[in-house]
């Protein structure tokens, strides 16, 4: 009886392991079906940007939609094809994987795309390539518009300060206790008779400040403190990279907003194609510059850099200026298109800047203050009519962003 039970157990276990190994193999086979050919990867990258998958997806890290890295391990390629073509149809048809995804991300829905299977496969090739060969420099944005994760995570500074303060308090307490013990011991020893002259001398020795300061222990401690302080400052400096007000790094090409957006009045949207439709504003790719510079100022050395970039296919490594930490979610189209907020309110007079400078502090307080004080742009937006009516019944002040939940943590934090 017992033997039979054991056999059944072993058999079940073997079966489970087999299933596991088998399913694992299958998913690797999926990944291997995604091409690694450079031409296909380049085509995929183009499609990824052109169809603005990048406005909702990162390869690594969540955005509006899930990270795409490894999606060819999670799903069948056929599933991915029909998903990209019409995700809502799959959800409506009750596909279990599609329904689970939708439940996690709704109400964000994915746009249906009129793409061929091999175009979608090319996008997967690009995703696989980025996943397997991540870009080295995380602090630059490329014309492709993918976002490097915001630099710097780890122990928050406020915790570090608290820990350091607590340590100092403990050390001081220990010093006081030691001093008291020394005092008590000295008194006790002085009262004792049977104690040698030599020991007495030590007990009665006067404390010499000069000798103390010159002692190797003290010099060691002071040196250590100085080095530690210097290190802390360096780390603090690294911590604020990209979130500094007034940050205006030198760019690889002397591109001037004053000239393009100011004198020539080129619309911001012409280059920053994402501002009205997506989360990111996007940094223009070389192609957009070439619309004009294939014939304008062709012999300028700065413009020659554009030709070199186009020839090599390498995106220009513009230094990223504005960069919120990963924990915060900011969406351009919500502010520019829906909210009707001007670029200049947040970015300053860009059209007068020779070199772009970070105008706003980009802190949480800055976001919140504006949400408290800005009334909603509800004109001509049917969605708000009923809400405004309700609001006006209960309040004399105009409806502002805070009233529609603009102060809720989850609206801005993943
Ligand atoms: C408007 C935003 C948006 C755009 C643009 C977009 N997606 Fe999505 N995508 C989503 C959301 C949101 C989901 C999660 C499911 C849902 O809520 O519909 C998703 C899910 C997916 C999934 C399934 C991921 C998984 O973990 O199974 C794939 C694959 C995908 N998208 C590919 C693409 C591709 C390729 C493009 C460009 C051709 C694209 N998406 C463009 C929003 C978007
Ligand atoms: C001809 C194309 C073009 C136009 C038009 C243009 N920009 Fe830019 N913008 C760029 C490029 C290229 C960069 C990256 C290099 C730089 O920072 O100067 C950039 C950078 C920026 C940045 C900083 C991005 C970062 O890294 O954080 C902001 C903000 C910005 N632009 C806002 C605007 C606004 C507002 C307008 C309209 C008044 C505008 N731009 C018009 C091409 C353009
Ligand atoms: C809509 C047309 C247009 C677009 C798009 C455009 N530019 Fe320009 N650009 C101009 C004009 C016009 C000039 C001024 C030419 C002159 O001074 O004669 C200029 C001048 C320049 C100069 C100064 C060259 C010099 O040596 O004086 C640089 C650098 C430059 N552009 C870079 C860029 C970059 C980078 C992009 C893409 C992000 C871009 N431009 C996109 C029209 C454009
Ligand atoms: C309500 C404030 C606000 C308004 C309005 C706004 N931006 Fe931004 N912008 C930001 C913030 C915040 C970031 C940093 C986003 C991040 O790091 O995720 C940013 C980043 C950018 C960037 C860097 C690339 C990116 O997408 O992260 C560009 C370019 C840019 N903005 C251009 C524009 C243009 C052009 C307009 C007007 C059409 C505009 N912005 C309007 C707040 C704003
Ligand atoms: C200059 C004013 C201003 C600043 C600064 C600003 N916002 Fe907003 N924000 C608005 C307005 C106006 C709306 C309402 C748009 C609408 O009608 O849906 C809004 C809406 C939002 C919403 C949607 C709220 C909801 O309930 O639907 C989020 C999320 C958001 N902002 C995030 C941010 C973050 C994150 C920052 C800082 C990095 C920021 N905002 C800075 C003006 C601002
Ligand atoms: C309107 C948008 C918005 C809302 C609402 C919001 N936050 Fe934030 N929060 C931000 C932004 C942007 C940052 C990043 C600021 C920075 O880098 O200095 C941030 C940073 C933080 C941080 C990290 C602080 C640090 O020093 O790194 C914490 C913790 C935080 N928020 C908690 C909350 C909590 C809790 C709530 C709800 C009571 C909330 N936030 C609501 C936009 C928001």
From TrEMBL:
It comes from Roseivirga thermotolerans. Coiled coil: none annotated. The keyword Transport applies. Keywords: Electron transport, Heme, Iron, Membrane, Metal-binding, Signal, Transmembrane, Transmembrane helix, Transport. Residues 39-131 form the Cytochrome c domain. The chain crosses the membrane at residues 159-185, 206-231. InterPro entries: Cyt_c-like_dom, Cyt_c-like_dom_sf, Cyt_c_III_dom, Multihaem_cyt_sf. The gene is actA. Pfam families: Cytochrom_C, Cytochrom_CIII. Residues 1-29 form the signal peptide. This is Cytochrome c.
